[in-house]
Amino acid sequence: MQLNAPDRYHTATEIDTVAELIDIRGARVLELGCGAASTTRALVERLGAGEVVATEVDRIQHDKNLTISDMPGVRFVLGGAEAIDAPDRSFDAVFMFKSLHHVPAHAMDQALREIHRVLRPGGAALFSEPVYWGVFNELMRVIHDEKTVRQAAFDALRSAVDAGLFRAEAEVFIEVPGTYADWESFAGRFLSVTHTELDLDAARRERIRTAFEVHMTPTGAYFMKPHRIDLLRKGRS
């Protein structure tokens, strides 16, 4: 397992990459840290998951998710990865899309033990994490520097493999294209979050805006966002 591999990137979306790595058609799936449920929808509508339990620790976002009425087979649950409210061996696959590094560092190992507990033998655990590298990361650092927590998330994954909880089956590095039409669309996506307390004063917001607008073109700001996707597998015994 590698924290970063600059020579191994290719352009892809997270969901397309997941589709290449794992077949979840008809599977019972757990998504931890579902956010606004865009990946939840893709797990059902594009990848054919039979049932999805989607958890979120941010109560504001969770309450918004509860108003979604067009995703049959999806159940939204308030809760974190370090204490999963589900029986042992009850899921075929577990997903965390850019959410492991949001688990408190002291609880990451416990979260991975919980994932191991709720997975059926032979089940898959897939983690997509942003990589601390590249132009887009330099912009995001101005908002919130995640170097320490991203390193902690990687260390926790590697420790879980070294401890024998999982077998590392695949590791893929992708750059996901991202386009923002203007400052307002970028700020709405990254500065108005409810899952993290950013505490931005006017001077800091202006600094972020200046850093963003360096990348503006007549048709918007375009970025390639680096991700590492790790597919782990629980043993069959």
Describe the protein:
The protein is an alpha/beta fold and 237 residues long. The chain has eight helices and nine strands. The protein has helices at 14-21, 38-45, 59-65, 108-118, 135-143, 147-162, 183-190, 202-213, and strands at residues 9-11, 28-32, 51-56, 74-78, 91-97, 119-130, 167-180, 216-217, 220-233. Strands 1, 2, 3, 4, 5, 6, 7, 8 and 9 form a nine-stranded mixed beta sheet that branches. α4 (108-118) packs across α6 (147-162).
The figure for the number of domains is 1
- The CATH class is identified as Alpha Beta
Residues in β-strands, percent? 25-35%
How big is the Rg? 18 Å
| Helix fraction by DSSP (H/I, runs of at least 4) | 25-40%
Overall mean pLDDT: 94
Using the 3D structure, state the CATH architecture. Answer: 3-Layer(aba) Sandwich
Q: What does the main sheet amount to?
A: 9 strands, mixed
- Within the CATH hierarchy, at the fold level, what is the topology? Rossmann fold
The topology string of helices and strands comes to: EHEHEHEEHEHHEHHEE
Number of helices: 8
